Amino acid sequence: MSKKRTQQVDFAFYEALRYFYLENKKDIRAEYKNLSKKFLDFNSPENPQSFLRVPQFEALEMYVFLKEYLHNAKVHDIFEDWYYEKNKFAKRTSPFIAAEEQISFRFLDEKAYKSVFENMKQFAEEKFANYIFALTMGTGKTILMATCIFYEFLLAKKYPNDPLYCHNALVFAPDKTVLESLREIQTFDKRKVVPPEYVSWLEANLKVHFLEDTGTSLNIIENSKYNLIISNTQKIILKKQHKEKTPVDTLFSSLDLQGVYEEFKDIYIENDTDLMTNQRFEKLKRIGQLGIYVDEAHHAFGNELAKDMGVKKSQTSLRLTINELAKSLEEAGTRVVACYNYTGTPYIGSQLLPEVVYAYGLREAINNKYLKKVILHSYSNPKEIEYVRLVLKDFFDRYKDQRFEGMLPKIAFFGSTVDEVKNQLEPIVRQVLNELNIPESVLLINVGDPKITTNDDIREFNLLDTPSSTKQVILLVNKGREGWNCRSLFAVAMYRKPKSKIFVLQATMRCLRAIGPNQETASVYLSEENKQILEEELQQNFRIGTKDLSGQDDGKKLYQVKVRPPKVKIPIKRIRRSYTLERREITDKIDFEFENMNMEKYQLMHTVQEGLVSQFSRTEDLTDLRDKRTYSLYTLVAEVARYLNESCIKIEKILKNAKQSTDEILSYVNKYNEIIYDRIIPYLFNAMYNLNPEIITEKVELELVKEPKEGCYYIRAKEDLVIKEEGAKYTSKTFHLDTYCFDSKPEKILFTDLVNHKDVQEIYFTGMLTHGQTEFAIDYIDPESNLVRKYYPDFLIKKKDGTWLIVEVKGDNKIDDPLVEAKRLAAIEMAGASQMDYHIVKGTDVERHHYPFITKDSDATYKY
After folding, report:
1. Mean of the pLDDT values across residues 348-368?
2. Which domain of life is it from (predicted)?
3. CA-to-CA separations, 195 to 40, 49, 171, 635, in angstroms, rounded
4. Does residue 255 contact residue 314 with C-beta atoms inside 8 Å?
């Protein structure tokens, strides 16, 4: 039995899913709709103007992958196909080894597979798919959720009859406090994540309903689209009728209602006969194709998360709320498209959440600088005044006279009760502040009791994360578990053991949010007992220990890189292509050549395989059962005329004069509607217009580096891959920047070789500026997305004979990559027009100092 449990826990299918996506990305994207590819490319880190962080974008990739490639399939069905390498996973490579090497697919036998499969399936009772995206606090779950919803609405607009896409979205917060943090969705600048040509439409059609009050009604129009409803569960859930209960009923019905749900226990459902509908619920039943998004926030761990994700069966479970809503929507003739949960961890104690499709953990977020690092302080058996004195002295010594983004650093002391904070902690803190000659005005108390915390205190609390705030020492009760985001919080302190162990973890994570351009370090001050609790909770919820909070040293340092005068400008010839349309008369009959088309891509094929691993199957063509429109000549003419912006009379005349009869054209069109857009409209366009290209060459001077707004650029690099201008003997030949931060040893070797070469007059390392800091960039067409991107070569070299070289250093395994080839062709074209030469050199050639492009003998090896 224990073996079965281990398999359930240790096999992280989301890692296998991500591995498959990365290995087959090109083939997978080929099945995406163009708008999906455009949306992903706009948000890709390869786009210098992209806004999303890497984990946000990776999660978005998996979101689109599940929708466009796997068609909103349930996780256990996806796992079955993956294991047996069938359907969409027929090309899967085997074996797979998980990233953390917890379990190898090679040893996932039939028995282990069934154990994992059953674990997934038992929590998938719904008719819709349920996905979990587990991104740790501070990585941007709320923005990711908004981006996914915007994507859904854009696709729903373009493909209104496709059941894959959400026409409306309901965002759930598990409690009333996290609801406020979701207001960011309402105010978020859509231009950061939505391609510019779609922003105006989205702004005009998106209707946001923020249900912040219990008495707020939901005002949406029946059968309307693009409604974004933000609420917490008690503002949607069906209310029960209040009726007389026996003392025994009252006792047992309240046993399971604890934590954040206790305050609202009187409105959660208990059985089907105990319901009465409310206005919001009725309104939701009148809109179609609803997507449900659950922001479980970072405060939900352990039992609370287990309840809400359906792993622990409970009448207070958020999953039950969603299932009841889905059932009512189905009865009303509409449905839930899918449910997307955004949590802070993929784990519940020793168990993996079964429906996780993407995870980005606390360790990764700290190591990759998305959160602060942590210094953990613990104290053995101090008196409370000793503890407070040690903590405040260390805090003010460490952060004295510092500001971060103009804000003062703060420390939060967490108390278990109002009485503890008011009668014990506050007097001690005031005493220690006086001992340290720090004014008591830095103190702020927020305990949730209006008798103690005034309206002025609440206003000050809401302004903590602003430069105007002078508060630095905050005394709190329970603010560790709520949606309180304060980036300028640099320390937390907890002396007494709280009632709930998970509160130690929740409070600790309050101070981890990143601030400023550098990764800062937060301080956590705990008693020895609380430190041990933190260790246990980190292991339970993140599979890491306290040592992981300090961050992994990747060996890189942050360097200030300044522009070295005089500015270097490079004369080049830029090639532009201009296309003009020339209308022409149609004199010949148009031949649509239907017989040469590959019709297989339009067919709907049904394959039946008896048994999961059977080699025998049968296939039938169900194309005639597809949902398609039947066109007459007049409706076909109208559709084509609308696309080409031509008169219907003209289009009708051309179609009637075509080589194929109108009956033959209609027979093809009515069998496969897509032929209108794939064949008829393109052929008519080519017959009606000449597309005349014109190549324009213009002389321009490019700045090798733009002036930084803040006086310098910040670039991280390993110390052994950095060369500074200071002390260098060859400054006259190089250094348009005062520091060169190389990405690899071959780049540094090539630079040190050629800067000393007798034929080299100037050499500049340009490969470190890849985010719009230089004008020296080459436009190329990405062969995968067909979008225009910018390529930043590694080196620009001027020889003493006046000729220029553009040089790229590439790993041997990348030389034949289609992306590298696309960059090479674009660079050769630009270089040729500018009387320059372009060369790619292998990393192994550099390591043996072999540079055919700079030495006369192609077999020569340069020794400096």
Report:
1. 84
2. Bacteria
3. 10, 11, 23, 32
4. no
Tokens of 154: 């854009």
Residue 202 predicted with pLDDT over 90: yes
- Helix ranges restricted to H, 675-743: 675, 681-688
Model pLDDT for residues 585-626, shown as the tens digit of each residue: 888 899 999 999 888 878 776 554 433 233 444 566 767 766
The answer to whether the CB of 827 falls within 8 A of the CB of 838 is: yes
Residues 300 and 344 sit within 8 Å (Cβ to Cβ)? yes
Number of CB atoms found within 10 A of residue 111's CB: 10
Q: Which long-range contacts (CB under 8 A, 24 or more apart) does 156-163 make?
A: 156/225, 156/226, 156/289, 157/201, 157/205, 157/226, 158/33, 158/35, 159/33, 161/627, 163/289, 163/337
Confidence of residue 345 (pLDDT cuts 50, 70, 90): confident
With beta carbons less than 8 A apart as the criterion, state whether 737 and 708 touch: no
Domain 365-554: assigned CATH number: 3.40.50.300
Does the N-terminal peptide bond of residue 818 adopt cis geometry, omega within 30 degrees of 0?
A: no
With tokens 């897509």, the residue in question is: 674
Evaluate whether the domain defined by 125-360 bears CATH number 3.40.50.
Answer: yes
Confidence (pLDDT) at 416? 84
The DSSP bridge partners found for residue 358 are: 133
Percentage of the chain with pLDDT > 90?
Answer: 37
Domain boundaries, the chain: 125-360, 365-554, 575-694, 704-847
Tell whether domain 704-847 is in CATH 3.30.450: no
Which letter does DSSP use for residue 509 in this model? G
SS3 state at 371: strand
Q: In the numeric block, which tokens belong to residue 142?
A: 């709320």
The 8-class DSSP code of residue 513 comes to B
How far is it, in rounded angstroms, from Cα 733 to Cα 714? 24
Give the closest residue to 589 by CA, choosing from 683, 663, 519.
683
Q: Could you check whether 125-360 and 365-554 share the same CATH topology?
A: yes
- Give the CA distances from residue 838 to residues 1, 788, 801, 844, in Å, rounded to whole numbers and listed in that order: 64, 20, 16, 19
409: helix, coil or strand?
Answer: coil
Indicate the pTM of the whole model: 0.67
Judge if the upstream peptide bond of residue 439 is cis by omega within 30 degrees of 0: no
Beta bridge pairs of residue 376: 524
Contacts of residue 598, Cβ cutoff 8 Å, sequence gap at least 6 = none
- Residues 6 or more apart whose Cβ sits within 8 Å of residue 155: 33, 35, 36, 162, 164, 165
Of 513, 508, 569, nearest in space to 536 by CA: 508
Locate 811 and state its tokens.
């790993």
Closest listed residue to residue 803, CA positions, set 829, 832, 826: 832
- Scan for tokens 């819709």, then name that residue: 128
Q: Is 317 buried (19+), middle (13-18) or exposed (0-12) by CB count in 10 A?
A: buried
